Amino acid sequence: MHDRPHGEAPARALPYHEDPAPGSGTLPARAWWAESDAARLSLNGTWAFRLAPTAEGTGSAFLADDPAATASWDRIAVPGHWVLQGHGAPAYTGVAYLFPVDPPRMPDENPTGDHRRVFDLPEGWPADGETVLRFEGVDSCARVWLNGQELGTFQGSRLPHEFAVGHLLRKSGNVLAVRVHQWSAGSYLEDQDMWWLPGIFRDVTLLHRPDRAPADFFVHAGYDHTTGTGTLRVDCDVPGRVTVPELGLDLATGEEATAPVEPWTAETPRRYDGELVTAGERVPLRIGFRTVRIEDGLLKVNGRRILFRGVNRHEFHPETGRTVDLETMREDVLLMKRHNINAVRTSHYPPHPAFLDLCDEYGLWVIDECDLETHGFCWMPDWRGNPVADERWTPALIDRAQRMVERDKNRPSVVIWSLGNECGTGAGLSAMAAWIRERDPSRPVQYEHDLEYPDSDIFSRMYTPHDEVERIGRREEEPLADPELDTHRRSLPFLLVEYAHAMGNGPGGLSEYQRLFETYERLQGGFVWEWIDHGLAKRTPDGRVYYGYGGDFDEDYHDGNFVCDGLLFPDRTPSPGLIEYKKVIEPVRITGDPDAGTVTVANGHDFAGTGHLAFTWTYEVEGRRIAAGDLAVPPLAPGERAELPLPPAPDGAPPGEAVWTVHARLADRTPWAEAGHEVAWGQLTAVPRPAPVPPPGPAQAPRRDGGRITLGPGVFDATTGRLRSLAGVDLTEGPRLDIFRAPTDNDRGMHWEADAQVSVHWERIGLHRARHRTDAVELTDDALTIRTRVAPNSRDLALVTVYRWTAGEDGALRLTVGVTPEGDWPCPLPRLGLLLGLPAAYGSVTWYGGGPGEAYPDTRAASRLGRYGMTVDELQTPYVRPQENGARADVRWAELRTADGTGLRVTAGPDPFWFTARRWTTGQLDAAEHTPDLEPGDTVWVNLDHAQHGIGTQSCGPAPLPRYHLTAAPAEFGVEFRALSGG
Ligand code: IPT
User: Fold this and answer.
1) Does ligand 1 lie within 6 Å of residue 92's CB atom?
2) Are 716 and 822 found together in one domain?
3) Angle at 411 between CA 262 and CA 222, to 5 degrees
4) Is 114 exposed, middle or buried (0-12, 13-18, 19+ CB in 10 A)?
5) Separation of 498 CA from ligand 1 center, angstroms?
6) Which residues form a coiled coil (predicted)?
7) 3-state secondary structure 277-321
8) Of the candidates 299, 300, 311, which has an alpha carbon nearest to the alpha carbon of residue 494?
9) Strands 714-717 and 109-119
10) 448 lines ligand 1 (CB under 6 A)
């Protein structure tokens, strides 16, 4: 127990790593610039390294000049995390601190990495001025020595820290020693939901600072949309001139000039090359003119309300953790642009500065978030001890705000400053907000976790259900107790800074959110949680790569696969969630009325016209292209729409269901995608699906023959009534009712909210252990009828299921299934449909229906009608933790074939079905914890589902909307089976 009031500092002075003060010896925070004519030397590379168990480190020998000092040490890559380079292990927790909560103290066990690098100055390193040693990111606390002299200490992992070192430098043999503590007082401020990854994980650079070079400058570049002019002023601590040749500008620092310009926006990231010239340094500038304002309760850029189609991005690479190289950063930006994403929240810390440069270059709106989260205090009564409510920490909080704002203030992409994430409430946050507002009044400040929003210019929430978002959209949210605060909050624009938790299969419900954002101007969009699964690469004994999550690194406490909740798989392959998101947020909407012969194109961009897009159409019958052409769409201004005539239906088209597909593609190459890249699409039904025709000839009669029953091409087991074979296609398992799916992460719900876990109900009532009982096998003149009862083990619930088989003269077998529930079903069903098994050789699939990717009831926007072919293996979606996946929506027919072409064709009738095929059972899928646990068996398991329960986003957020619940209710559905001969 505490022998002193909680949170009160002990009498003796704290060691620097336990001191809440931000550090000592560092230079004031300032802007970051990547290019200039001043000399610089990267100190990235191979360093000597040794890990010690406590904050003592290895002692002082490694400070010495003696080359033998670290001769026997290991080598480590800087930037990098030692726990990903064979020293210790990563650990994952979502909320919990990995140390006793006793701020600002830390336990004695404090892995401490001593790093040492010896370097020479390059030939001609200037002798004048100053030289600065810069760290872009060290997790979590460092003490630094150069040539035996201590420079100082710092905390603030994802923030830059600099020291003046000129007086200590030698021409050669400089010994840089850095002691890095995994745990520090700063760790209390860095409780972001992610791996704990200590180390010097961003660049280390030596920067020459010539005499009369700027220490700092601030580019103010606003845009006046009423006049079309930009106003430029560059404040700088040393006098200099600013030139922008393209604009004919040449002005002194501190002076203001106005000129007609094209503004910067995320859609049109126009930058002007300029230069800041002082007596000591020439710094290239890339200036984006834009103005951010909150006006009329809306967030506006350049005078217009903008809509964020955003993602939360953590820095992550499956091999190197939060050390992310430039090419990977660029890949992130390109993937975002190609998937119609226009905004990034840098959850929950400022990213590597080069990432923001890419956002400026390619065009992404950025919420730059401070390196701050104290979420783990939520478990103490009233967040007791929370640093943001304890003034001892205020200097550290302000220091963090300063390091972010000063570093990133010159980025046009940054439109909002975020104080941090999940810190509860406290005066420290107000102090940060006040400092930021004073320093940079040109950008709004945002903070989510104080529901009264005293410090936020934006009303923001996380994972809010649709209906509540709608009320907020109407400015009809529940009032706050304090009328003044309520008035303030009600006046603010709204952002979902996190929504649609992309963990595993999902997120569901995106379309419905987007509809709200596009209906209510106050709702200015949101940021999907999150960009990428943080799965760390592991290898099976035979060398196959798979991805590990919490618990895979011998952690004694962890939060499992909650760290894998991104739109990208760890290797940056887009998951179905990203494909869905791309469709849902497409900036051009293509709809129409084929009966009237029209198509409507609506430009949903905020700033860009449609001139960069080329529109084409195809006309397909049953998924086969009959005709294609260009669609002339006049250039549309943002917000404009045009109704255009569809081309006449092609002559001589065969009968059958026909659709128009209209595509909007890039007319020309852009910096982020090739010409022809598809931005948006829409499908319109030209000829609806014909009703199934009744089979020809009289219905055939089933015949009993010993232990078998035959009906048309089908052979059945006489006892169970189960189909055994169909015209030479032997089934390993005949079709039978199936109601279970391997719970998705969203089905498993939030472990901290017991009633939000639908899969727990499923397991409790034994749905995964359903039993089948055959009550009657009836042969009549025109049908074989099997009466059964399908029931979960351990409960008196049941689905009375009647299979009615018929055959005509066309060689097909038809099955109609009637399902009647018995008892009070306490929860929705996972699925309702048929399961059948085919031999492993039936490994190739062709289908006509939705595709190409997976879809579920509330994740089907991206599924487009067409004819597709894939192998069974290609149908699988490799979620990091295996779970239900791979369903194809709206399937009219599907064929499974062997290599010689023998096959089975399943035709929907009348309703399309959800098609799934895999080489393992649902039980095996459910039991698997990692992808290599799934071993192909000797059966291809095929699900033909009449219905699926929605996906929702309840792994952190709302359940599927009620309309997507699969309630146990009477149902009838049918399919037709037909054997296909090979060759
Ligand atoms: C929210 C956090 O802000 C984010 O870091 C992440 O943990 C996410 O949830 C879930 O993956 S906090 C949530 C518990 C409301």
Assistant:
1) no
2) yes
3) 45
4) buried
5) 8
6) none
7) EECCCEEEEEECCCCEEEECCEEEECCEECCEEEEECCCCECCCE
8) 299
9) unpaired
10) no
Whose CA is closest to atom 4 on ligand 1? 193
- Average pLDDT across the chain, whole number: 96
As beta bridge partners, residue 376 has none
Residue 9 resides in a domain: no
Q: From 674, 69, 634, 85, select the one nearest 323 (Cα to Cα).
A: 85
- Tell whether 695 is covered by a domain: no
Sign of the four-CA dihedral 251, 252, 258, 264? positive
Final residue before a domain boundary, out of 533, 556, 582: 582
Is the pLDDT at 462 greater than 70, yes or no? Answer: yes
Per-residue pLDDT tens over the stretch 653-686:
999 999 999 999 999 999 999 999 999 999 999 9
Asked whether the beta carbons of 84 and 92 are under 8 A apart, the reply is no
pLDDT value at residue 3: 42
Flag whether 694 is in a domain.
no
The answer to whether residue 657 is catalytic is no
Domain count, the chain: 5
Bridge-partner residues for 229, per DSSP?
224, 260
- Say if residue 651 is in the same domain as residue 714: no
Whether 421 lines ligand 1, by a CB cut-off of 6 Å, is yes
**Residues spanned by the domain of 227:** 221-291
- 311: nearest Cα among 561, 520, 584: 584
217 lines ligand 1 (CB under 6 A): no
C-beta separation of 435 from 29 below 8 A: no
How confident is the model over 815-836, as a mean pLDDT? Answer: 97
Domain boundary residue among 231, 266, 291?
Answer: 291
Amino acid at position 723, single letter: L
The C-alpha angle with vertex 323 and arms to 321 and 329, in degrees rounded to 5, equals 105
- The rounded Cα 637 to chain-centroid distance in angstroms is 30
- Return the residue whose CA atom lies nearest to atom 5 of ligand 1: 193
Task: List phi, psi (to 5°) of 759.
Answer: -65, -25
CATH number of the domain where residue 593 is located? 2.60.40.10
Other beta carbons within 10 Å of 10: 10
Q: What would the pLDDT profile of 732-787 be if each residue is shown by its tens digit?
A: 999 999 999 999 999 999 877 877 789 999 999 999 989 999 999 999 999 999 99
Whether the pTM exceeds 0.90: the reply is: yes
Centre of ligand 1 to C-alpha 530, Å, is: 9
281 & 316 share domain: no
Q: Is the CB of 953 under 6 A from ligand 1?
A: no
CB 387 within 8 A of CB 422: no
Count the Cβ atoms, other than its own, within 10 Å of residue 13: 9
136, 422, 448, 555: which is the annotated catalytic residue? 422
Long-range Cβ contacts of 259-262 (<8 Å, 24+ apart): 259/229, 259/230, 259/232, 260/228, 260/229, 260/230, 261/223, 261/228, 261/229, 261/230, 261/289, 262/289
- CATH code at 813? 2.70.98.10
Report whether residue 462 contacts ligand 1, using a CB cutoff of 6 Å. Answer: yes
Which protein residue's CA is at the shortest distance from atom 7 of ligand 1? 193
Residue 1 lies in a domain: no
Distance from chain centroid for Cα 308: 15
CA distance 495 to 308: 8
What pLDDT digit, counting tens, does each position of 612-645 carry? 999 999 999 999 999 999 999 999 999 999 999 9
The CA 957 to ligand 1 mean position distance, Å, reads: 10
**pLDDT for 983:** 57
Token pair of 776, please? 């009657």
Catalytic residue status for 733: no
Contact 644, 601 (CB under 8 A): yes
Residues 241 and 340 in one domain: no
| Nearest-angstrom CA–CA distance, 731 and 836 | 7
Q: What percent of the chain has pLDDT above 90? A: 95
